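From the shared-data thread, chain only:
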Amino acid sequence: MKREILFRGKSIEPPTEGKWIIGSLVIHGNCSYIMPEIPFTPFGIVKYRVNPETVGQFTGMIDKNGKKIFEGDVVNHTRRTSNGLESANVEVYFDAEMLEFGLKYLNELFHCQFNNEFEVIGNIHDNKELLK
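Structure, as tokens:
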């Protein structure tokens, strides 16, 4: 099975300013760029300068609606606790120490197996209110 390596970042320059760009991450000096999957045009290679704080990697997983799950996404997740089923909106993050993706439940870091019970409902950059 081929692993799909993708990144997402929010463009900071016209004409795509404010839009999410998905593709390969290119870092040049202090600048971060996303190069779309088909970067070649009659005018050369296309790359978009993005806000480095918005860059997130594709987890390799999709949600129950077939949407790709990226680092920085907010997903709705239901888990079984000692009090029964608990549903929460949580942030997807990458744990550099454990080299794996996980979820942030308030201040608790939670490592999990992503499955089709997750639903992407936004991201931490555009929808911070979803985590309250």
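Residues 7-54 form one domain.
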